[in-house]
Amino acid sequence: MNNSAFPEGFVWGAASASFQIEGAASEDGRKESVWDMYCRKPGAIEDGETGAVACDHYHRFREDVALFKDIGLKAYRFSIAWSRVIPDGTGAVNAKGIAFYDQLVDELLAAGIDSWVTLFHWDYPMELFYRGGWLNPDSPKWFADYAETIVDALGDRVKNWMTFNEPQNVANLGHGSGTHAPGLQLPRKEIARVIHHILLAHGLSNKVLRNAGSDHKIGHAHSGWINIPADPNSAADIAATAKNMFDCSFWHPQKFSWWNDPLQKGYYPEEGLEELGNDAPGIGPDDMAIINQPLDFMGINYYGGTCIKAGQDGEPIDIEYPPGVDTVYPKWVVQPQGLYWGPSLLHERYGRPMAITENGLPNLDWVGTDGQVHDPQRIEWIRTHLNAIHQAIQDGADVMGYFYWSATDNLEWAEGFRRRYGLIHVDFNTQKRTLKDSARWYGDVISRNGMDL
Ligand code: BGP
């Protein structure tokens, strides 16, 4: 148990994403995104589910915000549906789309909740996909123009921004394995090109947000492979862990350093470039300077990590499922200490403030005969992960906040509605919301600023 509170001003929040909750997919001028297309693909989404209705948050956001207030959330991370506000991706702005986010931000403000806005959480406008999507060299500029529209509309009240959510998955799953929208299976040369354009889009939009006012805090929400030393007392295991986490001698679109070295240091890892050879992206003379913009915080989405031990030669050996470690449905390993080692090792490499922009437990929660949702495992999950963050902060990592994933149960992408992550249970037949036990428990933790976990 920690016997000190979290640092003053620590941000206590929960997160969501537009496509997973909003519904109203063809209302008020919204056009399709690549996820609408992907949902139409037979077999792509479990049980043939779609985002057409989801949590109907578009119509019920006031009720949802009232629940966030009941819990005691201090911050709410949500994303903008690009094709709701600019239906063609570029050009005409849809006033009704803007009005929705405008009202949401006002409602949150009135409830005393800070908005943390993600510009892009995967729902890429279909009209831009028809034009080549992230492969098109104009795609960074399209994104910067979209960012300008959003910051013009909301920037007087929204001060915390994330450019991209897990672009690693957009590249790897969306354009590599084809298991996320848009469902492409491209060779690595084209994936590296997609990454380069997303990095440029991050840089250009970062500048746009920065120009909107010096009080804007700009970051991202990245995933990556977080590693945990098999023996936390072994210097060799710790060294092998860091080596594996940042090593780019084998190129993979999921690697932290392939994204964050350009973003935060201004260059791609040399070994990765060498390995890619002719498949490396074309890098224009100004590109790296555009990509390498000041970053106020590094967002980390964490669900589970891989244990590493050092071999005889010190080289890292993966132990994916170490003995004694539990897994949750369907396969995440329960490794709270990843939120000690991830922030600690990322702090050593990048020395930047961090926010845990996602972390949560999927479970098969249901409303009991007493009308309540009892989810002790989620409470244990949050408690142990917060303890790990607390320890990382004690040991020097600068972690500014924690966003539980997710505020409500929602459409878990290709996994449909079965995997429930929410603090708030949603009955997808009736749209009835019920606070889970974990929501009340988390509210209590927030009121104590994390003391006595
Ligand atoms: C992250 C996404 C979230 C959410 C979460 C849950 O990758 O940013 O939108 O979906 O994962 O994970 P999963 O959908 O793999 O269960």
In short:
Helix content is 39%, strand content 15%. The protein has 16 helices and 15 strands. The structure holds 6-O-phosphono-beta-D-galactopyranose.
Q: What's the arrangement of secondary structure elements?
A:
Layout (H helix, E strand, L loop, with lengths): L10 E5 L2 H4 L12 H7 L16 H15 L3 E5 L2 H4 L9 H16 L3 E7 L5 H4 L9 H16 L5 E6 L1 H11 L10 H24 L5 E5 L5 E3 L5 H12 L9 H10 L4 H7 L10 H5 L6 E4 L4 E5 L5 E4 L7 E2 L3 E2 L4 H13 L3 E5 L17 H19 L4 E7 L18 E3 L6 E3 L1 H11 L6
Helix pairs in contact: 3-5, 7-9, 8-9, 14-15, 15-16
Bound molecules: 6-O-phosphono-beta-D-galactopyranose.
6-O-phosphono-beta-D-galactopyranose (BGP) binds next to loops.
Which kinds of small molecule does this entry bind, naming each only once?
6-O-phosphono-beta-D-galactopyranose
Q: Indicate the radius of gyration in whole angstroms.
A: 21 Å
Measured distance between first and last alpha carbons:
6 Å
Number of helices, counting only DSSP H or I runs of 4 residues or more: 16
Shape: globular
Strand content: 5-15%
- Helix/strand/pairing class, anyone? alpha/beta
Can you give the helix content as a percent range? 25-40%
Q: Looking across the biggest beta sheet, what order are the strands in?
A: 5-4-3-2-1-13-12-7
Q: Main sheet?
A: 8 strands, parallel
Q: Count the strands?
A: 15
Regions with little confidence, pLDDT below 50 for 5+ residues: none
How much is the average pLDDT? 96
